[in-house]
Specification:
The complex is a heterodimer of chains A (about 325) and B (about 270). Helices cover about 30% and strands about 25% of the residues of chain A. Chain A contains 9 helices and 16 strands. In chain A, strands 5-9-4-1-2-3-10 form a 7-stranded parallel beta sheet, sandwiched between helices. In chain A, strands 13-12-14-15-16 form a 5-stranded parallel beta sheet. The chains are: A alpha/beta (about 325), B alpha/beta (about 270). Strand 11 of chain A pairs antiparallel with strand 11 (about 170-175) of chain B.
Chain lengths: ~325, ~270
């Protein structure tokens, strides 16, 4: 289809409380830059149920316009309802480009939407810019397990769409709510929704494993030696308010659940601080965490590849290093 | 019950090295394997067949003639029949074009094997890492989709899927036919028996070219059917070397780390 405007859209994912998930707000930051370069508006698209908190957050984080689709059928994400609503919005308003967070839901929705609109989609981008020669969005993403980066263009189809990795861009400061808010009545009849969520299984206990939005992650690998080896990692994580991560080796050994896994077959994370303990740093693990702002590694093996990626590398025994660090932190933090 | 499993032959990305002079990937000598996530999809199909021996599992791949080796691995592990889609006209396809070709091939294979109730894929291939072909295939076929599946079981006329989400898992029910894409589950795929290996070696694998896929619109395939274009590829820059801390004792190293992190306001 043809674009009707030069606008750039950012999809704001909502949670059960109707608030914005972090990644949507993060994407308003590069979205502003791209929209300015495209010469269009920055539009936040909010789909959900009782979405007022998300609408206000999007407005406060710099959107020029917020388009809202609100209805009970959008309370919980389903592919069919969300694709139906977004397709109708795109056909009506005709944006030039669209950013979607590369969350599980975003990567479920993006390809289905792009295919329905018969346009191009670039997955899991870590870099965004405008190609100076053509004016198209230049989508940069890792491939081959992080061994290669590729810059992709979608020259002849609109909207050009990309899913963008959470944590790569930083959420801006919230300011005055200035966006024009447009409510669109789009309903998806029940019979058009072909999947039903029959049960929700929260990760056991009250342990937080939302790795993607964690600010600090403390991860353990083969070097922790067993399930009980995660104890010093959990203690450090607790004092830092951090989330516990793990390498594939630790998960495959059954020491910790897959929900904690960071890397190519687990989660891709980009926290402010990533502390890798007893993790050798296989390329698949690095692919999942190398976007972190600061990387700290603790490993007995000075030749471990994790040290090549680390800003601070401690050659030593995690069982002796971590408790000292935890104790010192407790002192300063009371 | 018929299950189609879509598989891709990929280079083993754990074996990929970078040419330090030309700064490009060295692909020579890198072993080709069945994309691991597709292996999980095949195992999920095999587990359904374990409960119901009437289930037929067909595997489908698109790629060069060599991709038949991956299909033979699938036959040896669990599949009953395999088809390869191969044509120069399909080269250079992005995910939209690939899924379009696959959807045509699904319809063609169904003429020979009967209608598929379930189509299983890996959530993504480890070379491209896009996770787009499964959902785009579902859209071309107008089937429901469930992505990030850990387990799937058939329950009458629907499929029950345990799906991984950020907060844990969901149990999702969908009517058949349905496309399900699999992530890494808690179990490992089965090993082939010697008997199955021998049979797989001898199995005939039909090749579907553009001629066989008579309904295909070739303007929607290959490079010209692909809306996305690769502008350039490059090797990511390695992080400049960080600080190495290796004091006389672990305690001293920990204290130094604490000091450095505090001074830099990292923690």
């Amino acid at each position: 289809m043809e674009a009707k405007t030069k606008d750039l859209w950012v999809l704001i994912e909502t949670n059960e409380a109707g608030s914005a998930r972090n990644v949507g707000l993060e994407l308003l930051t590069p979205g502003r830059d791209l929209a300015n370069k495209q010469g269009g508006r920055l539009v936040a698209v909010v789909i959900g149920c009782r979405t007022e908190p998300a609408v206000r957050e999007a407005s406060a984080h710099g959107a020029d316009q917020v388009i809202v689709v609100d209805g009970p059928e959008y309370a919980h994400y389903t592919t069919d309802a969300y694709v139906n609503a977004l397709t109708a919005l795109v056909e009506k308003h005709g944006p030039t480009s669209m950013l979607i967070g590369a969350t599980n839901n975003g990567r479920d929705l993006g390809p289905r939407l792009a295919c329905r609109l018969k346009t191009g989609l670039t997955a899991d981008c870590t870099g965004l810019d405008i190609d100076p020669e053509s004016g198209n969005v230049a989508w940069t993403r890792p491939a081959f397990g992080g061994n290669l980066m590729a810059t992709i263009l979608c020259p002849d189809h609109r909207p050009q769409i990309g899913t963008v990795r959470p944590g790569v861009f930083k959420k801006g400061m919230s300011g005055a709510e200035q966006a024009e808010v447009i409510h669109e009545e789009i309903h998806t009849p029940e019979e058009k929704i072909r999947t039903r969520v029959v049960e929700l299984i929260k990760e056991m206990g009250d342990e937080n494993v939302d790795l993607e939005s964690a600010e600090i992650i403390v991860s353990g690998g083969r070097g922790v030696g067993g399930p009980e080896g995660f104890a010093p990692i959990r203690e450090l994580a607790e004092v830092l308010g951090a989330t516990v991560g793990a390498s594939r080796a630790a998960v495959d050994s059954g020491w910790i659940s897959h929900a904690h896994q960071v890397g190519q077959t687990g989660k891709t994370v980009a926290p402010r601080v990533y502390i890798a303990c007893g993790i050798s740093g296989a390329i698949q693990h690095l692919a999942g965490m190398s976007g972190s702002d600061v990387i700290v590694a603790v490993n007995k093996d000075p030749a471990a590849p994790i040290f090549d990626a680390a800003d601070y590398g401690v050659v030593g025994d995690l069982f002796e290093v971590l408790p000292v660090l935890t104790a010192e932190l407790k002192k300063v933090r009371g | 019950m018929n299950i189609l499993v879509c598989v891709k032959q990929v280079p083993d990305t754990t074996e990929i090295k970078i040419d330090p002079v030309r700064n490009t990937l060295i692909r020579e000598g890198v072993p080709s394997i069945v994309n691991p996530f597709d292996g999980y999809a095949l195992e999920a199909a095999a587990r359904i067949k374990d409960k119901d021996p009437e289930v037929k599992i067909v595997v489908l791949s698109m790629g060069p003639e060599q991709a038949k080796a991956a299909l033979r691995d699938c036959l040896a592990a669990a599949a009953d029949k395999a088809y390869l889609i191969s044509d120069r006209a399909f080269g250079g396809s992005d995910t939209l074009a690939t899924s379009y070709i696959l959807s045509n091939a699904v319809r063609r294979v169904e003429e020979m094997e009967g209608k598929f109730n379930l189509i299983f894929c890996g959530k993504q291939a480890i070379d491209g890492d896009t996770a787009q072909v499964g959902p785009e295939l579902a859209e071309h076929l107008d089937y429901p989709q469930v992505t990030y599946a850990l387990e799937a079981e058939v329950d009458g006329s629907c499929v029950k899927v345990k799906k991984e989400v950020e907060e844990g898992a969901e149990i999702i029910e969908a009517n058949l036919p349905c496309v399900v894409t699999f992530t890494k589950p808690a179990w490992e795929p089965r090993y082939p028996t010697i008997r199955r290996k021998l049979d797989a070696k001898r199995a005939e694998i039909p090749t579907l070219t553009a001629v066989q896929l008579s309904d295909i619109d070739l303007t929607r395939a290959g490079l010209k059917g692909s809306p996305t274009k690769v502008k350039r590829t490059f090797v990511p820059q390695k992080k400049k070397s960080g600080v190495t801390i290796r004091e006389s004792s672990n305690h001293a190293s920990a204290m130094k780390l604490f000091q450095l992190l505090s001074d830099a306001s990292v923690i």
